[in-house]
Amino acid sequence: MNSNLYFNVLPEKLAAIEERRLCTRCIMDTSDPDISFDDRGICSHCRDYDILVLRQQRSCTTQSAFKRIVEEISSHGKGRPYDCLIGLSGGVDSSYLAYVARQAGLRPLVVHVDAGWDSELAVKNIEKLVRRLDLDLHTVVVDWDEMRDLQASFMRAEVPNQDIPQDHVFAAAVMSTAAKHNIRYVLNGSNTSTESIMPRAWGYNSLDLRHLRAIHRRFGTRKLRTYPTISFFEYYVYHPRIRGIRTIRLLNFLEYEKAKAIDILQQQLGWKYYGGKHYESTFTKFFQAHYLPTKFGYDKRRAHLSSLVVSGQLSREQALLEMQQPLYDPRQLLEDKEYIAKKLGIPFQELDDILARPGKPHADYPSNERLFRFKDWLIKKNG
User: Fold this and answer.
1) DSSP helix/strand/coil, 248
2) Whole-prediction pTM value?
3) What confidence tens digit (pLDDT) does each residue in 48-72 have?
4) Would you tell me how many other CB atoms lie within 10 Å of the CB of residue 146?
5) What is the DSSP letter of 206?
6) Strand ranges across the sheet with 136-141
C-alpha cells in the first residue's frame, strides 16, 4: 500500500485499509460494513448487480423499448414548447443524456442548478452543450448565504454525505420546474452501467427533508427562506401520482459505455473531462476525494470503478491500477481546502479539526429513514 494514495489519512486508518478483504470479481472491499462474500469470494454488490440486470433486461435495454419510450415522450409533447426536461450538471452522464435526447429528436428544457460550486470548466462545458445542441437552458440560482449556512451545518454535523444540500436542491428544482411548465417526462442521467454499485453505509438519501432540516436546525445560523425543498410526499406521491410526472432513466434503454460517451462529447461537442466522477463541482471533488477517505475511509472511486467492472467496461486489473493513482495532488488539495474553508466561512483550523475527528453516522440526527426503507421494500417487492 502506497501511503501517498491517501494523503493526510491517519496511520491507523491506513492500517485498516491494508487489512480489508477484496471481492474476487469487482474491487469492492470491507470498507463497506454491510458487504458479504459467497464461497467464491464474490461480493453482495456483484450478486445484486446480476439481479438488477436481469430485471432491467425484462423491461428495457432494447432498441424497440428505447424507440417506444421516445415516441411516447414525443407524442405527449406535440403542440408544447418542450416534450421533456433534463437536469444538467455538466457531468458525463447528464451531458451525454442531453446528447442522446437531441439525437432521438426530443425537445428538452434543460435545467441547471447553480449552488455556488460550479467549476470554471463545468460552466464552459454547459455553455458548449447548450449552444451546439440548440437547447433552452433554465438556471436556478440558489441564494448563496442560505446555501453556505446549510453546507457549513452539514460540515459541522460531520456526517458522511456532505452532498445532501446540493443533491436535494437539484431534485427539488427539477421537479418544481417540470410542474411549472407542465412537462410530464423528466429524463434522469442515473444509470446501471456506471452507477450500479454504491454502499448504503457510505451516504444517506438526499431527499430526506426531515434530516436536512434537523441538521440545519442544530448547526445553522439563519433561516432557509428561499432554498428550494421537496418532501417525501411531493417527490413520491404528488408529482408522479397526482401531477403525472414520470422520471425516465433513458440511458438504461441503451448500451451505455462511459468511455464512448466521453469520446463523443469531446469529439462532437468540444466538452472536456473533469478527471473524476462528479468533479464538475469543486465541493463534490473535495468531498469525494478527501473528506470521505480521510474521515471515514470511504473511497468512492472503488464503487464507481466496480460499477464499470461488473458492466464489462473495465477489467478488474485496470480498476486496481486506477486505484493506485493518488486521490489528490497535495498542492491542489491545500488550495481547495483553503478555498472551501473561506467560502463556507469556516476557519481553516476548524476544518482541519473536523477532518481529523472520527465521523458521525447520519443516524445521530433525526430522519425519515424508516419511511425511505419502507419505500425501497415496496418497490423491490413489486419488481
Assistant:
1) strand
2) 0.90
3) 999 887 777 666 556 788 999 999 9
4) 19
5) T
6) 136-141, 108-114, 84-87, 185-187, 246-248
